[in-house]
């Protein structure tokens, strides 16, 4: 099965609920759906990685493009070496990325999955497909947060029985202790991003897809920062259960930068592989 086919998740009819009426939660149907969507012989997501240098007249731009291309090549070489080192000790264990909304879990998961040859899943997307609804925001609106959390827990439970997966979890997946029992079957990594950077990122793309933010009033940055501040206060101890904490602020400081936006997703993936190696070697 081709990766693009294997990971093209189709809506499940079992949870297509009508008339805005909540239905009894049926974990057997969820389990069957997840087992259908996520099975061990899936291949990892492999997004295009070829880089084409820009043809420009300005010598300065040519130099900048060449430098960027070289940086990408260097990152690719480092990622390949790190992945080989990690694979020799990983024993097919799954990797779970946790962190606040907007912290880049899905992007980093795809990079790690690609270099390790692991399948990559976004638990929010699996929950949407299991519920037969187009977004987490709609699940919240129609059925409430508790219904979504039940599906999310079942998704994590079923993924925990599998191997060779990288799972990007939803921001609130850490709040239920039972979810940690499932994630402890693998290795968990907390992407700890400064709130200011997260708020700017979320404000730039909008809050419509963020059910915990979209009902707040005020300008996007202010309401994002206020909500994120409240969430990290509530969830800090839960995130701290992760096997590995990646502080992007510390990573940027090591490179002599104050702004975490100078870090690329590949920088973060390399650091994650380094920390996994330290944990399991």
UniProtKB/TrEMBL annotation:
Q: Name any Gene Ontology BP term.
A: amino acid biosynthetic process
Reactions it catalyzes: shikimate + ATP = 3-phosphoshikimate + ADP + H(+)
Question: Which Pfam families does its entry note?
Answer: SKI
Tell whether Nucleotide-binding is among the UniProt keywords. Answer: yes
- The lineage's top-level taxon is Eukaryota
Q: Where does it live in the cell?
A: Plastid, Chloroplast
Give a GO cellular-component term: cytosol
- In Swiss-Prot or TrEMBL terms, this protein is called shikimate kinase
State the organism of origin.
Rhynchospora pubera
């Amino acid at each position: 099965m081709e990766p693009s086919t294997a990971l093209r998740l189709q809506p499940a009819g079992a949870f297509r609920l009508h008339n805005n009426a909540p239905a009894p939660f049926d974990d057997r149907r969820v389990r069957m759906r997840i087992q259908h969507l996520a099975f061990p012989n899936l291949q990892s997501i492999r997004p295009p990685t070829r880089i084409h240098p820009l043809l420009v007249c300005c010598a300065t731009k040519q130099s900048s493009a060449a430098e960027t291309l070289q940086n990408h090549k260097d990152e690719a070489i480092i990622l390949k070496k790190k992945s080989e080192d990690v694979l020799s000790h990983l024993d097919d264990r799954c990797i779970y990325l946790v962190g606040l909304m907007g912290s880049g879990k899905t992007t980093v998961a795809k990079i790690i999955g690609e270099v390790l040859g692991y399948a990559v899943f976004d638990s929010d997307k699996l929950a949407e497909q299991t519920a037969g609804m187009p977004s987490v925001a709609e699940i919240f609106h129609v059925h409430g947060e508790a219904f979504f959390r039940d599906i999310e827990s079942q998704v994590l439970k079923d993924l925990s029985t599998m191997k060779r997966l990288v799972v990007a979890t939803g921001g609130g997946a850490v709040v239920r202790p039972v979810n940690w029992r499932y994630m402890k079957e693998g290795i968990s990594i907390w992407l700890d991003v400064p709130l200011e950077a997260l708020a700017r990122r979320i404000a730039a793309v909008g809050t419509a897809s963020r059910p915990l933010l979209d009902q707040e009033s005020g300008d996007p940055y202010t309401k994002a920062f206020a909500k994120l501040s409240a969430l990290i206060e509530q969830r800090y101890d839960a995130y701290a259960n992760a096997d590995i904490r990646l502080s992007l602020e510390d990573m940027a400081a090591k490179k002599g930068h104050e702004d975490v936006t100078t870090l690329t997703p590949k920088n973060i993936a390399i650091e994650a592989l380094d920390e996994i190696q330290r944990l399991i070697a």
